[in-house]
Amino acid sequence: EIVLTQSPATLSLSPGERVTLSCRASQSVSNYLAWYQQKHGQAPRLLIYDASNRATGIPARFSGSGSGTDFTLTISSLEPEDFAIYYCQQRSNWPLTFGGGTKVEIK
Amino acid sequence: EVQLLESGGGLVQRGGSLRLSCAASEFTFSSYALSWVRQAPAKGLEWVSAMSASGDRTNHADSVKGRFTVSRDNSKNTLYLQMNSLRAEDTAVYYCAKVGVRGNGDFWYFDLWGRGTLVTVSS
User: Fold this and answer.
1) Please, which pLDDT band fits residue B104 given cuts at 50, 70 and 90?
2) In sequence order, which residues have a C-beta less than 8 Å from that of residue B24 and are 6 or more positions away?
3) Residues A44, B100: C-beta atoms closer than 8 Å
4) Among all residues of chain A, which has the CA nearest to that of B64?
């Protein structure tokens, strides 16, 4: 099973700041990695797929990069609605796995 | 509106069974693979089961293999999860999720999620 490790667990930031979230895979997943956003009490929302492609309707301030084992989700300037938990997920191997999540909270 | 709606959750005793349903609306259900993903209280996401668009391929997480079975009825636009021998650690919100691309390929990312249904297993 591919283990995805996200860091940090929590980030305390202010609106307007730049955010960089990390996801590291225990073995190469090529570029088969997605990012999701989950707000309290809601289902996850797909942000990025195949490492760097924005899903439909996702604002340009969200971007993804990386390949192999190291991946990054960047939010160029935090908006109030971006405070949430972010998860990465790989589709390279079965079972599909998710990272443990990074919580982005208001400072 | 394009949506997924889960039902069938509830309180069940350890060792009991439940069947979850996921009803789809406003998209060509039979063209898309689907999955179940669960989230224990205050925990992260855990993939549970997946079924191809045609229904001929399934996968289950090791934690549920032999106890849970995913199935679908394309004539009813519904995905199911039969859960047997339930354990306390199966307590979670169960989400139904649709992949983002038509067909039986390997695009296992989820662009549409239901609101989830809560399963509570009492010990």
Assistant:
1) confident
2) B3, B4, B5, B77, B78, B79, B98
3) no
4) A95
